[in-house]
Structure formats: structure tokens, C-alpha cells
């Protein structure tokens, strides 16, 4: 299963775009320079008062569907 490690710094204001449904997916660059896209709904469990900050691991299946999104 492919794993991608990303460092996110999404401000509260930017996260509100996802919350309102203005953006359905998040695009980020992993630590190896690869661009990854995943559903914005994966962020919900990690939102704080200031937005979403931290390092995360994305795990996908063979068809690159998101299986796990966890803070590391």
C-alpha cells in the first residue's frame, strides 16, 4: 500500500473553504516531491481552532483510494 507523508499548514480561513464545500479535495506535495490529492473530508478529525497544522501519513490502496489519513 502506497504511503505519502505530508506537512500541512492550512489556516482557519482556508479550511472554511473546505467546510463550506467550495473545495472538495486537498492538493499537497509530499516529502518526496510528489503531488497528492485527497478528499477534504479527511481533514475533519484534525481541525483545531487555528486550522489544520502538522505532519500526516496518507495510506492508499492499489487504485490510489484513500484508506487512512493519520497525524504522525
From TrEMBL:
Organism: Thioalkalivibrio denitrificans
InterPro entries, alphabetized: DUF2835 (IPR021363)
Designated name of the protein: Topoisomerase II
Pfam families registered for this protein in UniProt: DUF2835
Amino acid at each position: 500500500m502506497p504511503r505519502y507523508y505530508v506537512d500541512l499548514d492550512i489556516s482557519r480561513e482556508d479550511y472554511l473553504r473546505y467546510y463550506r464545500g467550495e473545495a472538495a479535495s486537498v492538493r499537497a506535495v509530499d516529502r518526496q516531491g510528489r503531488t497528492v490529492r485527497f478528499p477534504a473530508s479527511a481533514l475533519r478529525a484534525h481541525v483545531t481552532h487555528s486550522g489544520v497544522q502538522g505532519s500526516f501519513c496518507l495510506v492508499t490502496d492499489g487504485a490510489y483510494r484513500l484508506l487512512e489519513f493519520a497525524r504522525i
